[in-house]
Amino acid sequence: MEGRPRLRPTTTTAEAPAFTSAKVDLRDNEIAQALCGNQNENLRLMERRLGMRVGQRGTELHLTGSPDVVAFAARLVEHLESVLRGGRPVYREDVEQAIKVLGRGGGSDALKELSLGSILTTRSGKGQVVPKSIAQKRYVDAIRAYDIVFGIGPAGTGKTYLAMAMAVAYLQERKVKRIILARPAVEAGEKLGFLPGDLAEKVNPYLRPLYDALHDMMASDRAAQLVEQGVVEVAPLAFMRGRTLNDAFVILDEAQNTTVEQMKMFLTRLGYSSKAVVTGDVTQVDLPVGKTSGLHHARAILGNIEGIAVSEFTEVDVVRHPLVQEVIRAYDRSDTAAREAREAAQALQLAVSGEPAPQAEPPAAAPALLTSAAGT
């Protein structure tokens, strides 16, 4: 097929039977340059992640490594080339996510699903907000299809950012008349005390992440104008009580820090022609010990209701720095080891004395209940 890369394997040397080489011809200088990235950063990333050598000469990529790795890299290059020919740029994050999908056994269908469609063009007019993992794609599809969607997973998986992008897209397409962004005002460990200023200034630190995401979606003066007109409202969760939200796209962020009563209050605000997206990380609960997270409770009792979708994310879907995934895995291993140690101590105490050991105080942040990315 014209325009597609051609893979030409070369002979394996007798001195190094574990390695082979291949050439992939992209047949287009602009495509080759875009795939390599700025100062070949995409190629360097492939080398680090796959443990191989990738060189470039004109429109050709020279792949050197074990046969399996070279075949894997050829599939990766073919996917990235198809993305570029579809009119989308390829950044380091796209290479990372494509490697993850292929590494988990995903085939061409999974890669194709990952590459379909953008949500929104950013304020610069150059970049596009697009799903960068299968879980993100299914999350976006769930927001389009359902009126209440829960996005649950660790930090950095794009839960809030994608919800914001969908809200702005719905507003631009006149599917809703306003956007309402809410967060519970709960400190993440620090005691902020008596902050200076009026009420808006006191709660602004809690809402700053939502403002940052909004300003990334549209020009700052346009965002400020919409906030001033009340088309976009950013407010603490407590301000939601007693309201009915019609023709609105409502986002509740950091929902793991809501109580059961607050979550019920928020979900019952939804009016006609409205959508609600609830995001949170159940491993980072900042509520006082003994308080049940409203997100935990809602997931347990609402998951089977028609019209409500729950999208789960894991560390595999993290689109921040690659070390963030390792940090999440390390904490998960630590939590698992601590739990197993407590269970072993309790079993030993029961075997020796016939009485169970006293229960240790549970941690404020409970471990995630689900460990695999799921769609709707």
The whole-angstrom Rg is 24 Å
Query: How many helical stretches?
Result: 12
Note the beta-strand portion: 15-25%
- Outline the low-pLDDT stretches: 11-16, 188-192, 362-376
What pattern of helices and strands is seen along the backbone? Answer: EEHHEEHHHEEHEHEHHEEHEHEH
Overall shape: globular
**Mean of residue pLDDT values:** 79
Kindly report the oligomeric state of this protein: single chain
Largest sheet: 6 strands, parallel
**Number of strand elements:** 12
Helix content: 40-55%
Class based on secondary structure composition and strand pairing: alpha/beta
Strand order across the largest sheet: 9-8-10-11-7-12
What's the topology here?
Layout (H helix, E strand, L loop, with lengths): L5 E4 L10 E6 L3 H8 L4 H10 L2 E5 L2 E6 L1 H19 L6 H12 L4 H8 L4 E2 L6 E2 L4 H12 L2 E5 L6 H14 L5 E6 L15 H19 L2 H10 L2 E5 L11 E5 L7 H8 L7 E6 L13 H9 L5 E5 L9 H32 L23
Parallel strand pairs: 7-11, 7-12, 8-9, 8-10, 10-11
Antiparallel strand pairs: 1-2, 2-4, 3-4, 5-6
